[in-house]
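Why does residue order matter? Because the sequence determines the fold. Keep that principle in mind as you read this record.
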Amino acid sequence: MNLPPGFEWVRNRPTTSLVRADVRDWVVPLLHAADGDWRGYDTIPVAGGRGGALVVRGPQGHAVVVRPYRRGGLPARLLHDTYCGWSPRPFRELCFTEALRQRGAPVVEVYAAAVRWLIPGCYRGWLVSRYVPGARSLWAWVSATPAPPERRAVFRQVGHALRRLHDRGGQHPDLNLNNILVCGGSHTPEVVFIDFDRAQPFARGRTSAADFARLRRSAQKLDPRGEHVAAADFEDLEAAYRAGGACA
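Structure:
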């Protein structure tokens, strides 16, 4: 596995971590605390996804989002958070996400990934990313029923961000309203994508139409009555995508 620039391995058996060097001094103790029920750290659950993600605040004032890897569907009943393999998913996700960020794609800034080996070839894993105060998933944001001008600005920004992601070689493996973060004010929003688990390195197979369809299905699942997400929102998103990704 090729390390992203600025990252290094930290091995403290049974845990192996891949950590950005400039945050190593405070991220490594935080990763060790993951196995100790976060003793000495304040935690706040993050809504959305399969659950388990936390905002973790350390004694020095640093704050990050820590996402444990958890299975979905039928495998979750038996394995829950246990994975098998010699190329752990947290490390692959970190490398892919950081490569996209360095290309200029609007993705979350990752700090570290860690696995705790249970037995050879079986592990539990975590991904650590930057915490953005006030950031909300697109679903949480739109559920607040913002005014029409604000809605249009945000959905257009999502379209621009998705175009930039595609133009820089990225494809999201599970694009939905909970994997898009809205940061900043409604009039000057910033949009970033999160959760690139199982992403294929710079795959080109899927079209923008497929991603639009995934977002619509996500909205139908989360908002079956159409109380929060309207057809006009997706029209704004798709129009901004077609216009290009230059706007930030």
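The chain has a mean pLDDT of 89.
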